[in-house]
Amino acid sequence: MEAAWKRVKSNRGSAGVDGLSIAETADYLKAHWPRIRESLFDGSYRPAPVRRVQIPKPGGGVRELGIPTVTDRLIQQALLQVLQPMIDRTFSEHSYGFRPGRRAHDAVLEAQRYVQDGYRVVVDVDLEKFFDRVNHDILMERLSRRIEDKAVLRLIRRYLVAGIMDGGVVMERYEGTPQGGPLSPLLANVLLDEVDRELEVRGHRFVRYADDCNVIRAQSQRGRTGAERAAQALRPAPSEGQRGQDGGRAGDRSQVSGLRAVAQYGDRIKCAVARKALEAFKQRIREMTRRSGGRSLPEVAERLRTYMPGWKAYFQLAQTPKVFRELDEWLRHRLRALQLKHWRRGTTIYRELKAMGASKTDARQVAANSRRWWRNSRFLLNRAMPVAYFDRLGVPRLS
User: What is the 3-state secondary structure (H, E, C) of 37-63?
Assistant: First the structure.
């Protein structure tokens, strides 16, 4: 329980339906933990409903989360710490999501190896709204094959049916395991392991990361048909959810967690950032560098330092330096336009550029078109605000 509490604290997170923060829950547990502990042992404990939260998806739509109370996150984390070592070793070697010692990068590298070996037809098995449609009875039956303790199974079911609170109203839940609790990823993998075993029986090469699965076949009509047939066979799924599938060349479809395999220089296969991930990055940068935000360049640079290094580290497997160079240039272009917008008046622009070492001709030309921030920031301003200028500000580089 102490290890679970340390993990819950380090993960931070917002309050559940009881409104108690992590610090407030710590005070609450000092007084009430003996009673909660006893109710867990005698089987009378009832989890609180989860708090419904909807967050926008990069590609449109929303992702629904269910935020348990901090107390319930603590209990779920303790369950996870005991159950995961027992259950994880029963999962497929081709599963990478939410498993200790495995990362998205490992899944990408496996997919890259398949493509490098000549398997270029990819079917993306999309488990639509998987977490919302998990069948509780089927999940509990699968868990009972791995867990003998009836009390533990009973507690897990109570978490599944605890309900969702939205706008002060509690709604009962008959299916689904909302994302947001520590235990949900393990429960999802228990069901999705059946997908993995079916694909293994059929002899397919595949990579699965959570509910995202790529089936990879040889580059032939037979390979394409076989992969699509595999996706069709998975339609009557344990979650009762619909599965879509889409076939394509590896460069279009072989992507896991934002990275994709692309063919370059003949048969040599490289990794690149997927188009959707690139667009999501650019949209985030647009928000941070919008010219109507009223922030100074140093303030914007500080915000960029909180986001860009993590993004760069996650996509470090990408082997397309030209893309990163172009993103760096595009970002500096936006920052130059932002600075011109702050100066606004032609006289101010002229004075500031001269102080930065610009020639009279460049300063005069930029000042004469003081409202054309985007065009001015592309050419003439490069000499007054070169790459080194942004390095001194602390603006991170991707390349």
Answer: HHHHHHCCCCCCCEEEEEEECCCCCEE
Question: Which of 203, 264, 226, 217 lies closest to 120, judged by CA?
Answer: 217
Cα dihedral 280, 319, 209, 128 sign: positive
Contact between 295 and 77 (Cβ < 8 Å) = no
The CA distance from 48 to 79, in Å, is: 16
Per-residue model confidence (pLDDT) at position 257: 62
The three-state secondary structure class of 125 is strand
User: Could you report the per-residue pLDDT of 142-198, keeping only the tens digit for each?
Assistant: 999 999 999 999 999 999 999 888 888 888 887 888 788 999 999 999 999 998 998
Angstrom distances, CA of residue 144 to CA of 44, 87, 155, 157, 382:
20, 11, 13, 11, 65
Q: What is the pLDDT of residues 249-270, one digit of tens each?
A: 444 445 666 666 554 545 677 8
Q: Counting Cβ atoms within 10 Å, is residue 42 exposed (0-12), middle (13-18) or buried (19+)?
A: exposed
Among candidate residues 67, 63, 75, the one with its CA nearest the CA of residue 18: 67
